[in-house]
Amino acid sequence: MAKRSVCFVGDELMLGLRDPEGFGWPQRLTRAERDHGHAIVNYVLGVEGDTTRDVARRWRAEAEVRLTGLPAAAVVFCFGVNDQAGDAGGVRVPLPESLYAAEAIVSEAASWRAAFWIGPPPVLASGLVQSGRQGQAMIYDPVRVRGLSQGFAAAAARCGVPYLDLCGALGERYARALAQGNGVVPAADGQAAIAAAVEAWKPWRDWLDHNTAPNLYFA
User: Fold this and answer.
1) Strand, coil or helix: what is 32?
2) Which residue from 108, 115, 128, 144 lies 20 to 30 Å from 218 (Cα-Cα)?
3) What residues make up the domain containing 166?
4) In the prediction, which pLDDT does 146 show?
5) What beta strand segments (E) does 36-151 contain?
6) Domains contained in the chain, number
C-alpha cells in the first residue's frame, strides 16, 4: 500500500500523559493501521494546554513543514476541551470564538489536504483539575464540552469535513479510564478507546483502504 503521512494536531489528549508507555491515541491508531498493512508516517503535534486559539496560531506552519510535497497526506484535528476550562474569570475561550476559529482552521486544512475532525472527548464532572504546562487549576464542565462538540459538528458540516463526535462515540470504557486518570486526561485504556473509535470510523477507513477523499461525504 502507498505510504500515507498524517499530522495529528491538538492538545494533551494526544500525548498519552497518563499512559505508562507514553502512547496517546494517535500512536495507538498508527500501530493498529501498520498491523493491518498500511504504511503510515505519523506526526503528533499535540501541545499540553492548547486551546483552539492556540492551534489556530501554529497548525499550518507545523503541518506544512511535514506534509508539503507529499501527495497522500492528511491532517487530523482534535482540540477544544481546554477552551471550556473555567475559573472565576470565565472560560478560557468563549464559545463563539471557539466555533469561529475552529471552522477557519478546518476549512483551510480541507482546501489543502485531506482533513478529518475529531471532536473533544467527554470529561467527568469534577472539581478543580490541574491543567496545562503550568499546572493551573481549572474546572472542566461536561455539559460545556458536549455543547462545544455539537457546535463543532455543525461547523464541520458547513465546511464539508467529516466529524467524529467522541462525546457520543465513547461510552463506559472511556468513563472508567477518565476516573482512573484525572477526569480530563484518561488512563491508558481511554487512549485505546479513542484509537478504536477512529479506526472504525467510516471516513477514515475509506481514505486509508480505498483512497476516498473525505470531502466526498458532503458532496
Assistant:
1) helix
2) 144
3) 4-218
4) 96
5) 40-46, 73-78, 86-87, 90-91, 114-118, 128-131, 136-139
6) 1
Cell 485504556, residue located: 189
User: Model-level pTM?
Assistant: 0.93
Task: Average the pLDDT over 111-120 and give the result.
Answer: 97
- Extract the C-alpha cell encoding 34: 501498520
Look up residue 18 and give its three cell numbers. 497518563
> What b-and-e string marks burial along 147-179, b requiring 16 or more CB atoms within 10 Å of the CB?
ebbebbbebbeebbbbbbbbbebbeeebeebbe
Q: State mean pLDDT over 126-133.
A: 61
Could you give the maximum distance between any two Cα atoms of the chain, in Å? 52
Show Cβ contacts of residue 164 under 8 Å, excluding neighbours closer than 6 positions.
Answer: 116, 117, 118, 119, 197, 198, 201, 203
pLDDT tens, residue by residue, 193-208: 999 999 999 999 999 9
Q: How far apart are CA 201 and CA 95, in angstroms?
A: 27
Indicate which CATH number applies to the domain containing 38: 3.40.50.1110
Kindly state the cell numbers that stand for 216: 466526498
Choose among 195, 115, 100: nearest CA to 163.
Answer: 115
Residue 163 cell numbers, joined: 466529524
